[in-house]
Design a protein that fits this description.
Blueprint: H1 2-16, H2 20-33, H3 38-50, H4 54-67, H5 72-84, H6 88-101, H7 106-118, H8 122-135, H9 140-152, H10 156-169, H11 174-181, H12 191-205, H13 211-223, H14 227-244, H15 249-262, H16 265-270, E1 281-286, H17 292-299, E2 305-307, H18 313-322, H19 339-356, E3 362-365, H20 374-380, E4 385-390, H21 393-401, H22 416-436, E5 441-445, H23 446-451, H24 453-463, H25 506-513
Parallel strand pairs: 1-3, 1-4, 2-3, 4-5
Helix pairs in contact: 1-2, 2-3, 3-4, 3-5, 4-5, 5-6, 5-7, 6-7, 7-8, 7-9, 8-9, 9-10, 10-11, 11-13, 12-13, 13-14, 15-22, 18-19, 21-22
């Protein structure tokens, strides 16, 4: 057994340092030699999951369970896979099974908490994170998750305490540094700024740079008005992040062109008002960082509105009903849609909304990228409302460049030329929607809200077919959960510092921004 322990140690090191092919080969060899050792199945499942081979990982975990159905961590890891597949009930059951088998492991409690946070079950999420810490007071990830939860709720002081504790336990937990940086208004002598610089220089020396730390430094330098160094850090962070993801402007252009060909005036005439006629959905769309979170915060302050945040109901419906396996739109130019399907798909969306809406009359869906699907929304939910958020293109693109996004549909966000190319695709598609669907889209300009808030907010509420309510002027008092990158800004009163903020970086941006529309 000593030989096996030594080989498992070697295997874990290969996994830790992302040498996944070598790790997989050694793992399979060990399983062949020791077919009843369940930890080997658990490790191989992790290795396969890391390679995004989740269905293979599920098979391996299930084989491990056959040898030992009492091995708690396999159920935990199955829960994590099903959470990634958005099979939330199944994920919850696996986490609970793991906990029932061994109540003294922090990780399943923490992961169950993350699942509940995804589902907006805040009290259950908080309780799960705290149970994780009761088992292991040094489990820094649960402190981090509590920090995220409190930040999303606008409890910024509590968020800071938990993020700092997470960093205290693991100084190299870079995500916690980046999240904490969003809560700090830095000064030159700030302790956390000194720590960020120290980590940055050490990581550079060891060739282990991390984009989270460098995004945080970009933010800190911006706070102290050192815009040259701020841009230097933002550029470096984006360069590192861009290397981690896949993105093709050409692929996006092909999809946008395909959408415009399919969703034409003839299609809308042929299928007019055949979808579900429910009028409860308010879609808030536009480029990321265009003011969508602020607009949702305003609208959801109305007592008849539930703020849904960034919902993936529509993209999931599109993926399941309109796309082939290889990622091409299934709809063709011959418009061969079954009329009854439009109503059924619209009803499925409304059913999903009703599950989260607390029986509210209206529900906001604030997934900015849904601007791509305004035509499809018109087909399946013709009575829904489309609020399109517009912002100065230069401010908008700079704000994207300054942020780290987990959402894979925003992989254009880490290169200035790709950001501006994508912005132009978006701008062109919006013109197409306005031509083919006149009067369906309501524009709301970010700068107009800032300059003339009461008039613009009254107009916005009227466009949503809602009676006036004064709570909408006090949107900053709205205590709802906000999970987007704008969660801090949306809880502030109206401020003007974000208008023309691109000019602070003008000399570094002019070449890329020449391509943008005025």
């Amino acid at each position: 057994m000593k030989i096996l322990q030594k080989e498992i140690h070697q295997l874990l090191n290969l996994y830790k340092f992302k040498k996944l092919i070598k790790a997989e080969n050694l793992n399979r060899k060990l399983i062949h030699n020791y077919p009843k050792v369940v930890i080997l199945y658990n490790i191989l499942g992790l290795i396969l999951t890391e390679q995004n081979r989740v269905n293979e990982a599920i098979e391996i975990y299930e084989k491990g369970i056959k040898f030992n159905p009492e091995y708690a961590m396999i159920y935990n890891n199955l829960g994590t896979i099903y959470k990634s597949k958005a099979e939330y009930k199944r994920a919850e059951n696996y986490y609970k099974k793991s906990i029932s088998l061994d109540n003294k492991i922090s990780e399943p409690h923490n992961n169950l908490g993350s699942l509940y946070l995804t589902l907006n079950k805040i009290k259950k999420a908080e309780l799960s994170f705290k149970r994780s810490l009761a088992i292991d007071s040094k489990f820094y990830i649960s402190y981090y998750n509590l920090g995220i939860l409190y930040k999303n709720l606008g409890k910024f002081d509590e968020a800071k305490v938990h993020l700092l504790k997470s960093i205290e336990l693991n100084t190299n937990f870079y995500s916690a540094h980046r999240t904490l940086s969003q809560l700090i208004k830095y000064k030159k002598d700030d302790d956390h700024l000194a720590l960020l610089k120290k980590i940055y220089h050490n990581s550079k020396k060891n060739n282990e740079q991390n984009p989270d730390i460098i995004f945080a430094l970009g933010k800190a330098m911006e706070d102290i008005k050192d815009y040259d160094n701020s841009f230097k850090y933002y550029k470096e962070a984006n360069y590192l992040r861009r290397k981690q993801i896949n993105f093709s402007v050409e692929k996006e252009k092909n999809e946008f062109d395909n959408i415009k060909k399919i969703f034409n005036e003839n299609l809308f005439k042929k299928y007019a008002n055949l979808g579900n006629l429910n009028s409860s959905a308010i879609f808030i769309v536009g480029m990321p960082r265009s003011g969508t979170t602020l607009v949702e915060q305003i609208i959801s302050s109305h007592p008849k509105v539930f703020g849904g945040d960034e919902l993936y109901f529509l993209p999931d419906l599109i993926k399941n009903n309109f796309y082939m396996n290889y990622g091409k739109l299934l709809l063709k130019q011959n418009n061969n849609i079954k009329k009854k399907d439009l109503k059924l798909i619209g009803q499925k969306y409304i059913n999903d909304l009703m599950k989260i809406s607390n029986k509210s009359e209206k529900v906001t869906d604030k997934l900015p990228i849904n601007f791509k699907w305004i035509g499809l929304i018109k087909l399946i939910l013709p009575n829904s409302i489309i609020i399109h958020c517009v912002r100065n293109s230069k401010d908008n693109c700079l704000s994207i460049f300054k942020n780290f996004f987990a959402n894979k549909s925003l992989n254009f966000a880490y290169n200035l030329d790709e950001i501006t190319d994508f912005y132009n695709l978006y701008h062109d598609l919006i013109k197409h929607w306005k031509k083919t669907l006149p009067k369906f889209i309501v524009d709301i300009e970010y700068e107009q809200i800032i300059e003339n808030p009461e008039q613009q907010i009254r107009n916005l509420i009227e466009k949503c077919n809602l009676d006036w309510n004064k709570n909408c002027l006090k949107f900053y008092e709205n205590k709802r959960l906000i999970k987007t990158a704008s969660d801090i800004q949306a809880r502030k009163k109206i401020y003007k510092s974000s208008i023309n903020s691109w000019k602070n970086y003008k000399k570094n941006l002019q070449n890329s921004f020449q391509k943008l529309p005025n």
